[in-house]
Amino acid sequence: MITVVVADDEPMVCAHLRTILGSAGDIEVVAQARDGAEAVEEVVRHRPSVVLMDLRMPGVDGLAAIERICALPEPPVVVALTTFDADTYVIRALRAGAAGFLVKSTPPEDLIGLVRVAADGHTVLSPSAARRLVALSSDGHRRDDEARRRTAGLTDRERDVLACLGEGLSNADIAGRLHLAEATVKSYVSRMLVKLDCTNRTQAGLLAHEAGLVGR
C-alpha cells in the first residue's frame, strides 16, 4: 500500500486529491496538512511513502517543509504541487530535495500513475520540464560552472548514466540503452548520488542538464 500525506492550504484541493487517490486500491491518503509545519508533523506521525506538498502556504511554506522532511531519517518521497508547470519555486523545491513536481491540473488518471512512479523512486519530471526549469534559473551561468565542477570527477560510464537520469529514464531503460545489468545501473546510481551529494535521482537529473550532459 502506498501511503500519502497531502499538504495544501486549500481544503478543496486536499479533498479533490484524497478522492482521486482513494479510488486506487493501492493508494491511501493517511493525513492532510494545512501548512508546512503541520505537514512535517504528519510525516513524523504516519511515515508515509509519498508527500504531495503545495509550495505556497501561509506560515511555514512548502519549501521549508521539504527541507525539514528531507532531513529526516529515511524520508518519504516528496513531490511538489504547483499551479504552474515551471517556475523558480519549483527549482528551489527540487534543489531542497523534492523528487519532482505535479501540476494541480494533472488529469486524475495521470495523477494516480505519477504517484505510483514517485513511490517506486523514479523521477516525476519530464526532460522538457527539466530544461525549462534550468533555463529559468536566475543564476544559470554560476550553476553551470558549479555543475561541471561537481561532475568533473565522474568516469565516462558514470557520466553516461547521469545523462540518462537527466532524460528521466528508469534503471531498466538505462540498462537497455547502455547494455548493462539493471543491478549494475542501480549500483552506479547509488554511488553517484553520494559522490555528487544529491538527495535523489531528480537532483542528479537536473545536475546533468546544468552540466550539459543531456543531448550531447
TrEMBL record:
SMART domains: HTH_LUXR, REC. Keywords: DNA-binding, Phosphoprotein, Transcription, Transcription regulation. Residues 3-119 form the Response regulatory domain. PROSITE patterns: HTH_LUXR_1, HTH_LUXR_2, RESPONSE_REGULATORY. InterPro entries: CheY-like_superfamily, NreC/VraR/RcsB-like_REC, Sig_transdc_resp-reg_C-effctor, Sig_transdc_resp-reg_receiver, Tscrpt_reg_LuxR_C, WalR-like. It comes from the Bacteria. Residues 147-212 form the HTH luxR-type domain. The keyword DNA-binding applies. Transmembrane segments: none annotated. The modification 4-aspartylphosphate is found at residue 54. This is Response regulator. It comes from Amycolatopsis albidoflavus.
